[in-house]
Every structure is written in structure tokens, then in C-alpha cells.
Design brief:
Blueprint: E1 7-16, H1 19-38, E2 42-49, E3 52-58, H2 62-66, E4 71-77, E5 88-97, E6 111-116, H3 124-128, E7 132-137, E8 143-146, H4 152-187, E9 197-200, E10 205-208, E11 213-215, H5 217-220
Parallel strand pairs: 4-9
Antiparallel strand pairs: 1-3, 1-5, 2-3, 4-5, 6-7, 7-8, 9-10, 10-11
Amino acid sequence: MKTQIEKIVLEIRASEGGSDSKMLVEDIKDIYLKSARNNNFGFEVSESRSGFCTIWLTGKGVKDYFKNESGGHRWIRIPPTEKRGRTQTSVITVAITVPSEFEFKLDRSKVIKSYIRSSGSGGQNINRRETCCQLTDKITGIQVKVMDKRTQFENEEIAWQRLEDKVKRTHQQRYDSDAYHNRFDQVGNSSRSIKKRSYRIKEDLVIDHETNKECSFKDFSKGKIELLS
């Protein structure tokens, strides 16, 4: 049996801390790319802009390796741009998603089809014969009526297409909503009080608040995120 390649997407976003938070997005991105290289994972930075980036990662075991990275990452450090040596607390968030294209195919066995007489202008053929096609999706309750054409066949063909488009749009919205809530569950409200991990740079210390493990930031910055798993 052929082994299926695992795929995940890391979404890194600046939260609190202004320009320092944006710089930290780049810093953690570089650390994750080192981790990918260390473990022979495939990777691609698919989107990168100020304060935001996404990294696609592939390879056997990649899901398990990065599973603890989601949440709020709280950094306590002196920003590189700080001239007075003041310590600042900044927050970035990491969300993990499994990429998949939304696929949909209308189940016609769950659709009620009926023909009714059209009304309005269009001549005797349209008004006297049951040329209007009505389709109702039993799952969503969405209904369409088509009486644009003169024949029953033409109207039915259009009705199926319109129904599929409407039902697909409804399922797509639900899919997008689920994806949004999945991200929110991982990062919370992104405030300083919500933290998955703390980075105390002056103390050379990284603390994971879920696994209760610690490691030096020097080691972590080399891409050894497994030290906190």
C-alpha cells in the first residue's frame, strides 16, 4: 500500500506588540523552516507579507511533529529596533490547518422534482403545458423554479445547474465557517493573557504551558521544536 503524504499549513500572524510582533512572525517562520529541513519535510512559503505568512509542509509524521505549535506565542524580549534597551511583550499566533479543496456533488436522489404550469407572458405553449421545472433539495430545503425556456427539457437542465450552484454555495459557507472556528479555537482572542508558549529571551528560556516542558531558546532557535513536545 502506498503511504499517503501528510500535509499541513502553518498560519503565522502578528497579534500584539506592533512592529516587534511583525518581526517575530519572520523569526518563528525561520525557526519552522529550520525544523522542516532538519526533519526532511517538504516546505513552501505560500504567502508572506508584513505580520503574516503561511507555510505548507509535507512529509511522513509532519502532523504529529508540529501539532503542539498552535496557539498564542508570547515573547518577552528587547526588540532589535529598541534603542533604550526596554523589554517588550509581544504576541504572535500560530494556527494549523489541513489543506483540502472543497468538493461538492449534488445528490440527485435527495431532490424532489416536479413540473408545473408556467405563468406570465410566453405564449400558449408555456402557459398551457407543465414546462416549469421545480426542484427542491431535501437536505437544505433550497428550491428553484425555472420557466425561462419553452420546453420542459431545457428548463430542467437549467434548474439542475442553478440548484447545484445554490446548494454548493451553502455548503461552502458552512465549510468556511468551520475552518474559521477551527482557527479561533486554536488562537483564542490573541491577547497577552492567552498563551500557549512563552519565550523569555533574556533568560534563554522557552516554556510550553501545555506540555509543561522547557528548553533553551538557543536550542529552540535551531529548529529543535521537538524539545517542547
